[in-house]
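User: Hey, my collaborator sent me this sequence without any context and asked if I could get a structure. I don't really work with proteins. Can you help?
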Amino acid sequence: MGSEWPSHQLCTCLAPLLLVLLCPCQLPAQASKAQQNAPSRQAPEGIAARRLAHLRHGVNLSGWFAQVADPKGYTKDHFALHTTPSDLALIKAMGFDHVRLSINPQPMFREGEADAIPTEYLGYLDEAVRNILANGLAVILDIHPAREFKNRLAKDDGLVEQFEDFWRAFAKHYGALDPDSVFFEILNEPGEQDRYRWAGVQAKLAAAIREGASQSTIIAAGAHWSADDDLLFLEPLRDANVIYSFHFYEPHIFTHQGADWGANFWHFARGLAYPSTPESAEKAAAEVPEAAHRLYVIRYGFERWNGARVEAEISQVAEWARRHGVPVICAEFGVYRKYADIESRTAWLADVRSSLERHGMGWTVWDYSGGFGVVTKSESGAAPDGPTLRALGLKTP
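Assistant: No problem. I've predicted the 3D structure and written it out in structure-token form, which is a compact way to encode the shape of the chain:
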């Protein structure tokens, strides 16, 4: 008897449990009240979402501070002549509101002392940023190293630690500028194929940026090529002031047809149309020597890529963003101009741009004057491409 409870105490203790069991309707009512008080995760809120308004229609500035084709490399003359104040004024006149400035960190990265960024090099970059801002454009400072640097970063923890040092110093240098106009992109298209490792590395780099620039907005991305599926895998950072980025070139066999980089067989595949049809794909496939690659081209035709197919891809990113309550930008999309006919190229650009805007995403087209450019350059200056600008919903000055 000593271990048994008196019957009246047993009834008192069981009364709350019996109440719950007999009246389960109270639990949903309480949960509903809690849900009403919880913050909504269906739409992005906060400072990062507000700043996305400055990144609605942008263009990538390639070949200036990264991917330099000049055999002399990263020189004072190159920085002064490649992209000029008149180019920046033209970008603004065409209706763009921001640029994504690709920056290769390697020319200013001192092994073992990565936080000591050379003053002279920073001076060239400072001048470029000043000119961008002076033309009323926001700027994404996109850290855009060459492949060998990214491959090392994917394996070398020591280099990751040094890259943290670099970012902390770099962010501190530019963190004093208007945070509504200057954004920090952690790394362009990480070399990490291991999505789990990249999630950890990116979190460390974001923390270093935040130490250097407490008020600035960070741009984060998924692993490998920053494609839409890489972003869908990513869990958002524990930092509310972040915009998430992805790149969209689907399907690559169309957007990169004739390209002599990437998959080797791309340079054989030319004349592919968009929207895709079996007839145009079969004709292009005939020029591809390897049977397995010919099949890849033929599949493009039967997949019937069109605006609905593009929307199906981008809507998955939109759903991911809604689920996590975060803002998203497409930091790269475009079509290699050399072998794509103008009707197909502009149709694809219009479909992608329309889908992004339908979902409230900012975008930055690739690129200003390179192989995917919105202008063509000659000795007489930069000539805007009217059909391309119309596909982007912009104007020809």
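In plain terms: The chain is about 45% helix and 15% strand. You can pass these tokens on to your collaborator as they are.
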